[in-house]
Fold this sequence. Notes:
CATH architecture of the largest domain: 3-Layer(aba) Sandwich
Largest sheet: 4 strands, parallel
CATH class of the largest domain: Alpha Beta
Oligomer: single chain
Strand order of the largest sheet: 5-4-6-7
Amino acid sequence: MAYETPPSAGKTLGILGGMGPLATADLYRKIVTMTPVSRDNDHIRVIIDSNARIPDRTAAILGEGPDPVPEMLSALRNLEACGVDCVIMPCNTAHYFLPRLQAETEIPFISILEVTAEACAARYPGKTAALLATDGTVRTGLYDRALEAKGVSVLHTDPAEQATVMHLIYEVVKASRPIPPEAEAWKGLLDSLRSRGADYFILGCTELPVLAETLGLPGPFVDPTAELARAAIRFCLGEAVLTSEEEGRKP
């Protein structure tokens, strides 16, 4: 068997992760499964700093916890030292702090908010999205601004629905509790939002795609983790690398 020389083309991707670790692993898995390859050497070089010491982003935003930026900067410096060409963060709420991080480096970040808003506008024009996200993401209006810029209509959770979202994120996925027993709570949340006019759902916390995939209930859903993976692949391998067939692949 003849062995080919590994390619020299392609950029190196940095993942500023650990927010949480399972969401970081989910993003990397999606990058690997969504990249069109025929051998190991065709994959993107990825440097991951899964820094679980980064303080909780929602707690910081609500004034109930320490500033996460120092630990985020520590991870960013590690990625810089490894020579990455761009950085992505598998945490929607962490993007509240993105302007502070970007000001500290010349390496570009790809925004999970922007690529998700673009996907919503392209796939569901004229439809209403229900945003499922942490209290921190919701209260800062992170997605509202990104979606408004793309003309996407958004429906927010009411207090009872939001309590369910936070339970599923913090007390189930982040706490590494079994997900299947939460099927009724998840179904009830989706049904409630549909009854109020939601046409589809933005899984606006990176723990939620893990939960949605495990439970397998119908959406439709927009998965920001998958959109971030697609954007990162395009950045590293070229804009035309994902064909229409590959766009439809499930991670």
